[in-house]
Amino acid sequence: MYKALEQTLDDLHNDKAVRGVIFRSALDRDIYTAGNDINALFAPRTTLARYREYLVISNRFLAKLLSSPLVTVAAIKGACPAGGCVLALCCDYRIMKSGSIGLNEVALAIPVPAYWARLMSSAIGEGEAYRMCTLARQIPASRALQIGLIDEIHEDVDAQARRFMNETLKLPDVGRIATKMSFRQSLAQEMGDEKRLAKEADKSWDKLSSKETVAILTAVMAKLSKKGKRKADGKL
Amino acid sequence: MYKALEQTLDDLHNDKAVRGVIFRSALDRDIYTAGNDINALFAPRTTLARYREYLVISNRFLAKLLSSPLVTVAAIKGACPAGGCVLALCCDYRIMKSGSIGLNEVALAIPVPAYWARLMSSAIGEGEAYRMCTLARQIPASRALQIGLIDEIHEDVDAQARRFMNETLKLPDVGRIATKMSFRQSLAQEMGDEKRLAKEADKSWDKLSSKETVAILTAVMAKLSKKGKRKADGKL
Amino acid sequence: MYKALEQTLDDLHNDKAVRGVIFRSALDRDIYTAGNDINALFAPRTTLARYREYLVISNRFLAKLLSSPLVTVAAIKGACPAGGCVLALCCDYRIMKSGSIGLNEVALAIPVPAYWARLMSSAIGEGEAYRMCTLARQIPASRALQIGLIDEIHEDVDAQARRFMNETLKLPDVGRIATKMSFRQSLAQEMGDEKRLAKEADKSWDKLSSKETVAILTAVMAKLSKKGKRKADGKL
Fold this sequence. Notes:
Mean pLDDT of chain A: 94
Number of helices of chain A: 10
Structural class of chain A: alpha/beta
Order of helices and strands of chain A: HEHEEHEEHHEHEHHHH
Largest sheet of chain A: 4 strands, parallel
Oligomer: homotrimer
Strand content of chain A: 5-15%
Low-confidence stretches of chain A: 230-234
Strand order of the largest sheet of chain A: 1-2-4-7
Helix content of chain A: 55-70%
């Protein structure tokens, strides 16, 4: 999925006619994303090599999104945990309908990646981000608006995202892009650096493959599997 | 104007009897400043050498103001775009009556200078500053108070600024100044560094002299000139 | 006192059964702490060597607390100036009943230590922290909640701190601790560095032993002494 996202973003960047992109959910239910696939983080079902590839590609995509010259909008129609939340944080603007949002890794015995925590700090300040991340909080849209984690609440996020996009595209690109870069370019470069990511993967793997984390994820996946095939698969 | 501002500030710093300064508008109308003179940024009416001098002197003054040992107050009685906004951000305290405030450069195809964006981030957090700067937002005093871009709304900003000044001068200078420096000194040093500013000037000039920026500024200046001589000249 | 605090924290860290700690006041009155002992900062009653020892030990303890793997809660039942405020800022969570809180050093002609100011910036943003520190503001619990300096107001802070602790300890430690470190470890390391602290002590001593500071502290201590022995001794 992250390979496809990165390829799509590269294609949009290469198309001079494209000036903006909206990330929306095609699900019927009010879910934005269920987050990353737990299987990619569950040591017994993956390998260090596979995990490293997953971590590098996903964060390389997120870093490209963070400093994309496009106007980037997240149209969040519902639940937005972990992987969905960080994708939204890499956009310029976030519109939400309902559900809750947050980086809830800690609840599953997984550390919040350091750069994801920094992205949340950038958006809402370090104090709020510290509480949210260390306490695995997922907060409702109304609270997210209050602390600036999202920019707007709207019943029809897709229509509102298009309105915001049209309004923003009236601004000339040249100053907007340079100003965006002054905020985000150096952070995106650090975050997407492949050497750094490979090191982070090795360090995280020690924790993911620890007895404690494996035991907790095993319990979580058993619970999710009980909930039945009709519900979303275990995602983070 | 920036030369005069810098000279005045230097004089105040050399006068041991002076412990504070209030920046107010002498206009009858409710305008704080109309911002910088667009002519200084409009490539066809200036030169790289002239632009570089303008950029160095204005930011050297702003950096001195940022780390001034004086108590510095902005008494903002009305409209406070771009250059006025950054002057206010370099003060210790901002009292506003009415009008709107913001760094609106992007609307004119001009990047917000990186250090001006950082000053806004320091005041209101990076998330809010990102939206404000990339979307060229100017917000009313009531909203500015809510997000901490100003400290107070008051009908008589001059009287209130004097009250705040008198109250603050009851504090001993020694701890206040050292504490102010621990917040601002290193940022002010970077911001006012002349080598850095000369480089920034060269880089910005590429953008200011681009066809796109010149075309947009030409249109803006034509519009402003139509509005008649009675209104403020094109300022940013 | 700081030696005892550091020793206690070291003991808790060495006891594998301990996962959290609550810092509460044993006073009957609604006072959290009266802050540091002014005598430790009053040059005529101490020496540079003694002051340096005080500064190193107190900040080494605070740095250990900041990056403690334990869940750390401040149950603040009342007045929480200076030294009490920074202890609370080094905790994970702050619950307050009444009284006011702030880093009020500037009112006594003493600079707010740079790392204490940074801790406040981390908690509430640089803009708010700048105003609070340079203006020596102590704010009531209601305002502290609004700006995020505390997390909750509660009539029974001890009971509420235990509830929060029990709730938080349901989270697995492994992800929570790693996430906490990604926020706080490097700041704690800088803050607790003994070479840096010895330098800071020498620099601060110049100010503490200046005529101006000694004169102001003399006046403050005379005032406090007049208030009688029944009130708290001069503390900061």
